Amino acid sequence: MSLKVFKVLLSWFFLVGLCLPVSFNAGSNPYLLINQTWALSSESIPLTSNIFVDIAKRQNPAVVNVSVRAKREKTRRQFNKPRSPQFPPGSPGQGDQFRDFYDKFFRQQPPGSKPKAPRGGGSGSGFIIDVDGHILTNNHVVEGADEIIVILDDDKEYTAKLIGTDPKTDIALIKITQEKDKNKPFPFLSMGNSDKLEVGEWVLAIGNPFGLSHTVTVGVVSAKNRSINAGPYDEFIQTDASINPGNSGGPLMNIKGEVIGINTAIISGPSGGGNVGIGFAIPVNVAKSILTDLRENGKVTRGWLGVMIQKISPELAKSFSLKDNKGALVGDVIPDGPAFKAGIKRGDVIVQFNEREVTSVEQLPKIVAQTNPETDVKVVVIRDGVPLTLNVRIAVLKEGEQKLARQGIAEDPLGLQGQDITPELAQSMGLETEEGVLVSDVIAGQGAAEAGIKRGDVITEIDRKPVKNMTEYSHSLGIIKKGRTVLFLIRRGGTTIYIAVKIK
């Protein structure tokens, strides 16, 4: 045998030796390598060829079409009212690209489709949560309705009554009404734990996009805790599962068929069309936390701390001698509020609330809101670099205090965040007085930034009237109508300048 032939045979045996084990394993179980490599959830549930088929068959009967009817005048005024949470200028969701699901239901239908939409109203989705026929949906789906119609998977139609609503989270609870002699248990969906969701986890959506009943789509969790500037409790699951106008209020489910979110909003394409792979769902744990209130009271009672708080920038962290920028900086304390009575002061940094760590300014309002009023909680603050534990009795958040619930993360038409000037800030920045409002942040592209206001500026006058603190600042802006140009006196370094800003 020649050396050349020997080398060929050796190479052949070597290749066979490599291929045989792989061929054997793949032949014995074609899914083995896939299942070992890819985990579909935090619990590593294996993907099978019919898993989504099984979920759709099991859960479809509990997903409903929610249609509303209203008087003609109310329909035009209420249901067609734009409801578009605002992204910062320049972001992908800015302007007309961002739509609530039902916003365009009335204007766009796919050619040849026959949506189940009632006269004089709109249509969305919902899902049954118990045998009695209670249904969760979006508040904007049923808001202003004179009559609510629910259509099940078998095309049976029922009227439903409104049990409770929470506009702050855009959640509503309705209930199917039946004749007494025809009562029967309804199919329902189980609610999972949205806190355990993982980015990349498979999810499935069922709803009525464009009125096309019980449409099933599949995708993954694209991101968690997404803020879209929709309100004080802004916390969304982002998904690429295809959802469109009409899906609003329908369930987003995990691989076990549990509801982990309520589909609520999308970013549409430049032409204002349907889904482009970016949709948002309310975490189901938000709904679970308010469900008892909706059932029993028809509305949600929330806790109130009574502080104005703000984000801690690196500059502020340095000024207050903080190790990092975690926590919520108290810019102001509401007189006679719970925080005031407990001894919380301006300049304190809240780092723990009721044994829960506070890592960001957005986190605190949600934790406080979920706390039952008249509950005593321990609040840990950093004051002058030293941790201090205070006992606070939480009060009821009243309607007139909703603006304060945003904790001074100011809904500012100028696109800036301001704060009171503490003695510490005045000293660290070399300011001669504590009067005025310190600009702690400016949003690019909005009025303040475009006019030339910068972080670190001190606002001392608005329309030639003195502004000594955040309270006076908010009051001055609150009485100014949109479209007006307002004159600001700014102290910057050792000089003062006037800046004109248009209120948009």
Task: Give an overview of the whole structure.
This protein has 504 residues and is an alpha+beta fold. The chain folds into 4 domains: 3-37; 43-300, Thrombin, subunit H (Beta Barrel); 303-405, PDZ domain (Pdz3 Domain, Roll); 416-502, Pdz3 Domain (Roll). It has 13 helices and 27 strands. It has helices spanning 3-28, 32-37, 51-59, 72-79, 139-142, 284-297, 314-319, 338-342, 363-369, 402-405, 423-429, 447-451, 470-478; strands at residues 63-69, 98-100, 123-128, 134-138, 147-151, 157-166, 171-176, 202-207, 215-226, 236-239, 251-253, 259-268, 275-283, 303-304, 307-310, 328-333, 349-353, 356-357, 376-383, 386-393, 395-396, 416-420, 437-442, 458-462, 465-466, 485-492, 495-502. The strands form 5 sheets. The chain has a 6-stranded antiparallel beta barrel with strand order 1-3-4-7-6-5. A 6-stranded antiparallel beta barrel has the order 8-9-10-13-12-11. Strands 15, 16, 17, 18, 19 and 20 form a 6-stranded antiparallel sheet that branches. The longest helix is centred in the first third of the chain and has 26 residues, at 3-28. The chain is elongated. It starts with a helix and ends with a strand. The model is unreliable at 12-42, 73-121 and 402-411 (pLDDT under 50).
